[in-house]
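Memo to structure team: turn this sequence into structure tokens by end of day. - J.P.
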Amino acid sequence: MMAQAFPIAGVELLRQEKLDACTHCGLCLPTCPTYSKLGLETDSPRGRIYLANGVIEEENPVPIGKEFAKYIYRCLDCRACETACPSGVHFG
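Reply from structure team:
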């Protein structure tokens, strides 16, 4: 069965406060344990923000399925990325 994309209620507030605040500078990358270990952009805070933005896109949204969950749930919620973020994005 193919994963389906669907809108998430209340996600606009999340987008404005968290997703849009990210400037994609990459300063969070070296602080992220999963990115440091795996070296994949999708396993970084910036990559996860790109994925989350993709889910709420109106045209051609990223489907929420196993691939999406794999990268989102690899986040350890250590919040180390927040200490390096010059924009003050609260990712955790």
